[in-house]
Each structure stands twice: as C-alpha cells, then as structure tokens.
Amino acid sequence: MIKGFIFDLDGVITDSAEQHYLAWKRLSDEMGWQFDRKINERLRGISRMASLKIITDHNNIQADEDTMQQWATQKNDYYVAALDDVGPDDFLPGAKELLTHIKREGFKVALGSSSKNANKVLQQLKATHFFDAVADGHSVKNSKPAPDIFLHAAKALEVKPNQCLVFEDAKSGIDAAKAGGFYTVGIGPNERVGHADVRFDSMKEATLFEVKSHFKELFS
Ligand code: BG6
Ligand code: MG
User: Fold this and answer.
1) So where's the catalytic machinery, residue-wise (predicted)?
2) ipTM of the complex in this document
C-alpha cells in the first residue's frame, strides 16, 4: 500500500539541471577544460564534489583537496546566483499539479535531493508547503546511487521503502531508490531511466490518475 511519495528535485520538480549545466560550463570555460552536454549527462543526480571529480578526471587534472573545494565553491556561486531568477512559474509542467493532488489525497510527501541548495530552490519556487520532509545534500554522507538519501526521507515520513514511490530523472537516482527497496517512477528517456518500474517522458504525463493505474494493486 502506497503511503508516501518522494521526489528528486532537479529535473523532476524544476529544471535546475540546466542551471547546473551552465554553472559547470562557465567554470570549465574559465579553466580551459573540455566540458559538454554529454559529460554533463553523467552528473545528473550526483553530488557537487563527485561531479567535479568526473570533470577533472575527464580533463586529466589532478588537484589537492583545497583547490577542488575552491573550484566547487566557484561553480556553486555561479549556480546560486542563477537561482535568484527561479520563481513560482518554474515548476516543470505537471509537477505542481501532481503535488497538489497527492497532498489533497493525504499522502505523505518528501524531497530526496543530492543538492545542498534544495531548500533555497524550494523557497524560490514557493513550494516548501508541499513537503512534509526534506532530505538533501546535507542529510546523508553517501549520495546517489547509494540509497541513503531516500531511506532518510522515508524514515522522516515514518513510512517503509515498499510503501513509497520515488520519482527520479537520473540513472543514479533510480539505482539508489531500487537499492533501497522503493518503487520507482522514471522521468525521462528510456536510455536514462528505462530501468524504473514505470517511466514517463516528462512530469506532464505523470498525473496521479496515470501513476495509480500503473501501480493499481499498490493503491487499492
Ligand atoms: C542534484 C543534481 O540534484 O544535486 C546534480 O542533479 C548536482 O547535478 C547535485 O550536482 C548537487 O547539487 P548542489 O546544489 O549541492 O551543488
Ligand atoms: Mg534529478
């Protein structure tokens, strides 16, 4: 029986995946590093430092911990500045509707995001009231594909993993949710989230009616 919904943030609730890309691109251009959308695809759902490591490895760059921190901070400054332009109109189509419907039906709702800026993004969207719990990049040590963030969110909601649906747009996110024993809803193309229990091209198709009809036995 489904009692809770857990949502990833970037690429599910709002399209801040694009702002992450632009911030990494700006840092890379300044540093003379090769970085494009193909490498960016590998950063989806991954923590800030793990993302930087992927980029520096790709460019055969080795740096000490302090320098890595400095670069990560620089990228984050660019990203956070861009968040000032995010507002209540920046929900991905369908996301606000789904949140509204599940709240109305009394389901418990949590955020499960690798981002340390998740609260800021929710505030910009004016979306904090939809969430009973927020698990973010500050909540656990091991980020996706480890299941920790979703287990933390489920615990905060006081529901078991097999009573929750996790919505994710990242391969690492679906891997994390499956590893934790959650039911999974993939948002995006088959090559990225085709291993989810159910997949929709976008949040627009992921209405409560559609979700319930795909997991019929879990809602009856
Ligand atoms: C995830 C994004 O939500 O958060 C990743 O999908 C990002 O691309 C990660 O790297 C960490 O975000 P932040 O805001 O802590 O740098
Ligand atoms: Mg995401």
Assistant:
1) 8 (nucleophile), 10 (proton donor/acceptor)
2) 0.97
Q: How far is the CA of 220 from the centre of ligand 2 (A)?
A: 29
pTM over 0.90: yes
pLDDT digits (tens, 9 = 90+) for 116-172: 999 999 999 999 999 999 999 999 999 899 999 999 999 999 999 999 999 999 999
Using the atom order of ligand 1, give the atom closest to the CA of residue 72.
16
**What CATH class has 17-83?**
mainly alpha
What is the fold of 4-15+88-219?
Rossmann fold (3.40.50)
Domain ranges of the chain: 4-15+88-219, 17-83
Q: 198-200 and 183-187 as β-strands: parallel, antiparallel, unpaired?
A: parallel
111 contacts 131 by C-beta, under 8 angstroms? yes
109 and 78 Cβ atoms separated by less than 8 Å? no
The minimum-distance atom of ligand 1 relative to the CA of 75 is: 16
Q: Which residues contact 158 (CB under 8 A, 6 or more apart)?
A: 108
The partner residues of 199 in beta bridges, in order of sequence, read 186
Closest CA to 107 of 148, 167, 60, 66: 167
Q: Which of 44, 47, 55, 120 to mutate to test the pocket of ligand 1 (most atoms within 8 A of CB)?
A: 47
